[in-house]
Design brief:
alpha+beta; paralog of FGE (formylglycine-generating enzyme); four-stranded mixed β-sheet; three-stranded antiparallel β-sheet; disordered N terminus
Length: 304
Amino acid sequence: MAAIALILNLTLVAGSHMDMVLIPSGTFQMGSSSGLPDEQPVHQVRVSGFWMDRHDVTNQQFESFVSATHYKTIAERPLNPKNFPGVPKSKLVPGALVFTDGKGWDYVPGASWRHPQGPNSSIKAKMNHPVVQVAWDDAVAYAKWAGKSLPTEAQFEYAARGGKTKAKYAWGYAALRTKLPQANTYQGNFPQHNDNTDGYALTSPVGSFPANGYGLFDMSGNVWQWCLDWYRPDAYAHSAKLNPTGPKDSYDPDEPGAKKHVVRGGSFLCADCYCKGYRVTARMKSSADTGLCHTGFRCVINSK
């Protein structure tokens, strides 16, 4: 058994295509003329073929990475007092941001990928759920270990459309259903109360909802997913036409001093009455050093 485990581990580290989907090369119109300003202008992009993980990286997969490398995520590391002037040292303890209905976001000491909602929570019964509370640096570390990389924003949007070039959602053109939802999102009066019509208050096991046209699961909903690109609201105005990798630096007018990367796909906190972040063109951004209870990732391997 140990030999088999070693072989599987070496295969993963070498960049295996196991449980991945080959996305064919193609040209599409990236962005939306009816979306938010940072989704514009709509522009033509050609993407070379690439392999993409069929589903988000799971807790089980991330645990294998941690066991092999003894990696500690940013949420598990001590905080540097120099980065938090004026904050008492007693409060500078490892943790992460957690969302609670009716209360919003709060920094919770002890929250991490093993304890997504705080120290009293656990992933023991959720090993097939997407790993969350991972910062961009954590996702990159996993991807390198696996012989892969994070997808570019263009790769993600192209793959999310599932071959339907004008699709608004990963499942196609139809609006999100109230009954029998097509993805794990927030149903109810956000952010006060989640009706849980889809059966999940938080993350759902990968593959719980139908795959898109390319056979990819959770390209809309469940968890936001890290992309390779830096975030800028004007990125599309300067985008390359072939395999764009995003701007050279980051700028968010809401937080000019924060270095942010793009996240895509929406999450279980995206509501029809709020952000509709599960649209295939929706862009969001997050600080590279920040883990969140609704943010994970998947990887790609670029074809040679």
